[in-house]
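Weekly modeling sync, notes
Attendees: S.R. (lead), two postdocs, one rotation student

Agenda item 3: backlog of single-chain predictions. S.R. asked that every request posted to the team notebook include the full sequence so nobody has to chase files. The rotation student volunteered to paste the first one in as an example of the format we agreed on. Action items at the bottom.

Example entry:
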Amino acid sequence: MKKKIGCLHAHYSNIDYIETALAAYDIELTHFVDPGLMQRVTSDPNFTEAEAESKVKDQVEWIVQTGVDAVLITCTNYIALLKEETLNVPIIKIDEPYFEVICKMEETQTILFTNPNTVSGTMTRLQEYAQRNQKTLDIEVVVIENSFELFMSGRNEEYKREVANALKKQNQQRIVSVAQLSMVAAAQQVERETSMTIINPLDTLVSSMVNQLNLS
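Predicted structure, as returned to the notebook:
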């Protein structure tokens, strides 16, 4: 029987990434998008963390009630706000398979971001994941300045070019990865054009989901 997966996104652009990556599998994807929550978290000083946590909890519970077999959350900030809940379906967090791969690397690493608002939540969760698994990480964080505005205004080719240029400038003696779905296309392009291997959260997610949900 075809598995039904509900996907919670903070931005509409993530839909295409997930649809394309999982197109080969016998699943039905339903997408739920709320860009307003993170905008409010970052811009409204009167909107408390407890209110944000409650909103994410309500969103996930609503998706579960639509009859899905699993919930996929593609926004690290949403994941950080979601406290451990006891639900009757698996909650798949896009960053955990990515963290797992990163924690297996003993070399020094560089993680690139374009959205500065995702750095703190992602790195906090990564360090917590590493501690739980008794791993010590040597990681440099690079934020590609003034690039995420291009993405948010729909200037996707310019955005992709900025990310690709930044990736090509990285020290190839280090393990390099990109932390956001919006950066995956540029990372894949650079891999095709160079000898670099760039870890990205989409490839690690698909591998994990295939195993976790027995996809075929």
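Discussion: group reviewed the output briefly. The first helix runs from residue 13 to 21.
Action items: rotation student to repeat for the remaining queue; S.R. to check formatting next week.
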